[in-house]
Amino acid sequence: QFWREPPLLKPTGRRAPSSRLLGPGAPPGSATREMMRAPRVAAAAAPALLRSSARAASTLPAPQFAPVKFQKEDVEAVMKELPAFNFYEIKEPVPNPYQSSTLDRSILLDPPAPALVAPKTEFSKLENGLKIVSVDKQGLTAHLGLYVSAGSRFETSANFGVSHMVSMMGYTSTAHLSNLRTVKTLEQLGAHGTATCKAGREDIVYKVDVMREFVPLVVPLMVGNVLFPRLLPWEVKAAHKKVKEAQGALDADAMVSELLHKAAYCNNTLGFSPLASERSMQYFTPETIRSFMLDHFAPERMVLVGVNVAHSELTKWAMRSFADYNAIPLKKRDEAKAVYTGGDLRMEGSSPFCHVALALESPAWGQAELASVTLLQSILGGGSATASGLGAGMTSRLNTQVVKQSPYVESCAAFNTSYSDTGLFGVYGVAQPDKAGDMCAAIAKCLTGMTSVSKDELAKAKAMLKGKLFRQLDDDCHLMQDLGTQVLLSGRYGSAADFAKAIDSVSEADVAAVAKKLLGGKPTVAAYGDTHTVPHYAAVEAALKA
Predict the structure, then answer these.
(1) Helix, coil or strand: residue 387
(2) What is the mean pLDDT of residues 3-24?
């Protein structure tokens, strides 16, 4: 009933590519996955290891989801459990007694003893199919994410751009809260700057970071976005201008990612942009958005993730958010397999440099070859003309064979991104326009050299990869993204230790075999900026076969 329209009620100089995902709107986990990183972090942070290596997770046992039954509870008793919150309170009711306290003096009269409990991953599932995953690291800030298996790959010619439209309607009016009250509530909780909704190619993600004591207030607010959004016509119309703003906010890195996917998956699934265009405006209506959500937003296709929150607390408030409402029923949908076509796509742009990406089809999520591909990425590494020092990838192949061999190459980095049924592996480089052809030739030579890897080189890559994988666990946002992505796409979760074992099991022969398989496919070329010296597609293809 809530899904029916409710009645009207009240650059200059040297630069490196951006360190964020080339696709639009990437969270640290954003919803599109990190792919082309700046060379200054490509060697230090390398691939999103927990998301990339984890895609060999099909051999891991499925986690045991503890069932959570819906319960009828007394409303007054439930309200007593909520933290104190005064919506209309703009100023402090009393003067701040600690305003003169300096940072060297504790303001706690009775400081609580720390709860030294080792973090562990816990899994639960509501009666309606919603999966809940959490890790409590005892942090003060809770990171919450609601992952929905819906994105631009599920769009059709009748609703192109609808996933972007859904993301723009996040945190607007619902059956319980108006847009104004939603915004003011988030502001009062200090979460207005962290509440985001972003659409990717395979998922739509709602995120909020908030003090952990306010989790009971935020979980129902997040669930309201997918359970009973009002999609008021005037709010939808007001969001139209955001489409042009989103297109204008794309930088060179994001443009290369868009071109690369369009060329690699021409006219199918992952080739559809997660950004709406001006031509999508005719579809930007409440009816189109509601129809898409009814087709894809069933609880069985959602995962609620929490970091620094007690699992019992998260499951309790998730249950209460759904208990009294009929969720969207699960519908069978046509999930067309992504067809890798390869190809060439270029666009002249305002960048003073030439941005080029050479890519090959790589294994999909869940395939055992992912560990070998990730090690290849680590071996290639990356480098930048402006980055040096510890962790800058000074000894990686791309840095020594491409960046340091020419003063005209600004930066170069290997990337690998995996989806549920395919992936892209390649190299992204930035160079002075007149020398883009030389850079492409050097990159092609570096890629063809992947078939030869020494024992020492592989051992060093393994050590680097495992070290980065374990260090990434310290990033709460990254951990949340990892949990959500793995469980959403595979229903499984592998720890860092599990993937360290997978990395250790890879041999030189495995890496060489995967490299030959990658090079045996058709390449994809994407270029943006001043592209007048980028070689012809046939020349690039021939260089990779040499």
Answers:
(1) coil
(2) 32
Residue located via tokens 């069985």: 300
Instruction: Indicate if the alpha-carbon torsion angle 108, 114, 119, 125 is positive or negative.
Output: negative
* C-alpha span between 409 and 439 (Å, rounded): 7
Note the pTM of the prediction, 2 decimals.
0.86
Quickly count: other Cβ atoms within 10 Å of residue 402's Cβ: 27
- Mean pLDDT for 309-333 is 94
390 confidence band (pLDDT: 50, 70, 90): low
CA 137, distance to chain mean position in Å, is: 22
Helix (H, G, I), strand (E, B) or coil at 87: coil
Q: Look-up: residue for tokens 């489409």?
A: 243
Q: How far apart are CA 146 and CA 299, in angstroms?
A: 11
DSSP states along 295-353: HH--GGGEEEEEESS-HHHHHHHHHHHHHTS-PPPP-----PPP----EEEEEE-S-SS
Of 479, 142, 474, nearest to 308 by C-alpha is 142
- What's the 3-state SS for 29-71? CCCCCCCCCCHHHHCCCCCCHHHHHHHHHHHCCCCCCEEECCC
Q: Is 114 left (phi over 0), alpha (psi -120 to 50) or beta?
A: beta
Give the pLDDT of residue 264: 98
Q: How far apart are CA 387 and CA 411, in angstroms?
A: 9
**Pick from 477, 438, 447, 410: which is nearest to 253 by CA?**
410
Arithmetic mean of pLDDT over the chain:
86
Q: How wide is the angle at C-alpha 32 spanned by C-alphas 29 and 38, nearest 5°? A: 70
3-state secondary structure of 438: helix
What residues does 209 pair with on adjacent strands? 143
pLDDT tens by residue, 231-248: 999 999 999 999 999 999
Q: What percent of the chain has pLDDT over 90?
A: 73
- Whether the Cβ atoms of residue 493 and residue 132 lie closer than 8 Å to each other: no
DSSP annotation of 142 reads: E
Contact status, residue 505 vs residue 405, Cβ threshold 8 Å: no
Rounded Cα gap, residues 205 and 482, in angstroms: 13
Burial of 473 (0-12, 13-18, 19+ CB in 10 A): middle
Q: Is the pLDDT of residue 213 over 50?
A: yes
